[in-house]
Amino acid sequence: MESLKSNQKNKIKARFRSKRKYNDWMWAYIMIAPLMVGIMYFYFIAFFQNFFFSFTDLNAFGKWSFIGIANYVKILKDPTVWQAFKNTAFFTIVSVPISICLALFVANLLNSKIKGRVIYRTLFFLPVVTMPAAVAMIWRWLFSGDFGIINYFLKMISIEGPSWLNDPKYAIFTVIIVAIWSSVGYNMVLFLAGLQGISPTYYEAATIDGANSFTIFFKITLPLLTPTIFFVLIISLISTFQVFDLILMMITDTSVALEQTQSIVYLFYKNAFVYGDRGYATAISIILFFVILIVTIAQIKYHSKWVTYDV
Amino acid sequence: MKNKNSFFSGKFIIYLILSLGAIIMVIPFIWMILTSIKTFGETTQMPPIIFPHIPQWKNYSEVLRLFPFGSFYLNTVISTVCKVFGQLVFCSTAAYAFARIEFPAKNIIFLALLSILMVPSQVFLIPQYRIIQQLNLLNTLPALILPGLFSAFGTFLLRQFFMTIPKELEEAALLDGCNHFQIYYKIMLPLIKPGLIALGILTALWSWNDLLWPLIINSSPDKLTLSAGLAFMQGQYTTNYALLMAGSILAIWPMILLFIVLQNYFIEGIALTGTKA
């Protein structure tokens, strides 16, 4: 009798539960539907279409025919693409570490007890909220060979400044300087947040033990900040590898330094929307995708070697 | 950190280094403002003069006369507002479902969504262009907005916020007969306000400054955004820096003003992406 009753109860409970379950499902699908339809249309299908078009000779008018791996063979034989990959890799390898080190340095200074922290933070962050197209224009003007103020200052200490953006030797360094200038503030804010997450007890203990500030930075701050450094490194590498705005706006079409500075996304843009060779451009984008994927996976795989998680 | 133990002996050096850095950050802006009110002749003078003889405020009216800045502003503001609003609605509803409801195929769908984060945006660009073309929307305002309404990143970010809310809250509401949409709208949304603000600010910043998409999708001058408008302007007046600087200032001041007014939200928003992701 007892068991029968509880059986009945369980059945009612189960029915209630399954009713709620179906209700849950319905709401879940309704709530993800608008996003997923858009994502499906503009991202999932687009991804596979892009992959498909990399095996065609899609042109600006939307006409295409299947050409197998011809685009990829062309990439292998195209010195411009190789050069663009070299430029992009060089750009990334130089600018990302410098930007991260500077940001780390500034964040540490700002984290000490000083007056006017907010003002300094604001000024360092200003370039981050300024559109890259305008940033590029400002610096193109500052670095102008004939009338630029930078060359004027160099002249005052009797250095004859080059025509920065038109000289294949200097152009990429010029763009790197601008990239660092505009990214330090962003990384600094992330590091400041990371620094504030470190418990003050570590510092108190170290101070009692008589550790100097140098030791404190390298033995406490830096190890505890490695998760943040890792995050900043990953997003910086990914975004820097896709540099486009600065190159487009700073290096003119006719610049003799174009060959030595153009990035992979710039080349993608040129092929797709200036030359109208869309099939070739999609193949370039696929290669870019794999390069970024491999670099990111390598980062994640080896991060346990140097990233410490709080104990 | 205690002062005597701070990384660098003496506060003086800290102030010196920070001030030097701040000057490097600010000088380009000051030079931009000064250049924007010089005559063309004054910009090409050597040695350069710091202040213009007579401030040429008419450079601004000249830029406004030569280029459809009214349309640039309108297109940029409308597309930014739409993208912010669209992402907040679409991402937050989906993020709620992914964080708080169990449903079939949830993990697979979410994983697929996350995989988009690994793909550089250029990979989607040509197919997206073709979609806009097939919809007959090239050179229109909706073309600027459409793909930017949906964001995998935004969904991921907001899901992290929804995950932190205790389970008891919705259990009680469900027993009271609320449905999931009511729980999402009335209980959860107010609780993840910091996340919504962070996503809103990041989306606004990204939308305002984005160059590649508006550049390829729209070509007639009155359909450009401010950043694409600057690129267009530079193509026409390559070396007239007085006009170019005036145009740049016209393009960047609204975002800078917004940043100064909502500073803490900007900083917290960026910081949150670091700690939540």
Mind explaining what this structure looks like?
The complex is a heterodimer of chains A (311) and B (277). With 311 residues, chain A is mostly helical. Chain A has 2 domains: 1-53; 70-305, MetI-like fold (Orthogonal Bundle). Chain A is built from 13 helices and no strands. In chain A, helix 4 packs antiparallel against helix 7. Chain B folds into 2 domains: 12-56, no CATH class; 68-234 and 253-276, MetI-like fold. In chain B, 73% of the residues lie in helices and 0% in strands. The longest helix of chain B has 32 residues, at 69-100. Chains A and B meet through helix 1, helix 3, helix 4, helix 5 and helix 7 of A and helix 1, helix 4, helix 5, helix 6 and helix 10 of B.
CATH architecture of the largest domain in chain A: Orthogonal Bundle
Number of domains of chain A: 2
Overall CATH class of the largest domain in chain B: Mainly Alpha
Helix count of chain B equals 15
Distance between the termini of chain A: 55 Å
Overall residue-averaged pLDDT value of chain B: 91
The appropriate CATH architecture of the largest domain in chain B is: Orthogonal Bundle
Oligomeric category: heterodimer
Q: What is the overall shape of chain B?
A: globular
CATH class wording of the largest domain in chain A? Mainly Alpha
- Summing up helix and strand content along with how strands pair, one would put the structural category of chain B as mainly alpha
Relevant CATH superfamily of the largest domain in chain B = MetI-like
